[in-house]
Amino acid sequence: MTFLEAAFPYEPPIGEREMSALTGVRDVYGIRLMKFNQEKNTVTIEYDASRLTRSDIEFMLRNAGIRLRTPVARQHDDLKHLQGGNWRFSEPFTGLW
């Protein structure tokens, strides 16, 4: 599992209907955490990137009635060692084909 965290800015207000619909988003397998910051008008989602993409999350939030603006990436402290070019993508799997 590869967990990522992304913050999605939204247009307030979020009403009772939207909050009720968000319980369905939280129940999706691969969604680990959902936090709201009402001061910054953002919802932060921690999700399993091996199962979901940022587009999947955005689609689910929009379907719940959340009016999103452009998503903003957020970096985990434990990923700071990847800065500065000290990493590379793994070789693509060629498999048996």
Quick tags:
97 residues, alpha+beta, Alpha-Beta Plaits, four-stranded antiparallel β-sheet, 2 helices, 22% helix
Intertermini distance: 25 Å
Shape call: globular
C-alpha Rg, in Å? 16 Å
Question: Spans of 5+ residues with little confidence (pLDDT < 50)?
Answer: 85-91
Can you count the beta strands? 4
Q: Trace the largest sheet across and list its strands.
A: 2-3-1-4
Structural class: alpha+beta
CATH topology: Alpha-Beta Plaits
CATH class: Alpha Beta
Order of helices and strands: EHEEHE
Estimate nothing, just give the exact number of structural domains: 1
What fraction, in percent, of the residue positions are helical?
Answer: 10-25%
The main β sheet shows up as: 4 strands, antiparallel
Mean pLDDT: 79
Q: Count of helical segments?
A: 2
What portion of the residues fall into strands of 2 or more residues?
A: 15-25%
In CATH terms, what is the architecture?
2-Layer Sandwich
Protein architecture, described:
The protein is built from two helices and four strands, in the order βαββαβ. β2 and β3 form a beta hairpin. It has a four-stranded antiparallel sheet with strand order 2-3-1-4, with helices on one face. 9% of the residues are buried. The longest helix is centred in the N-terminal third of the chain and has 11 residues, at 16-26. With 97 residues, the chain is of the alpha+beta class.
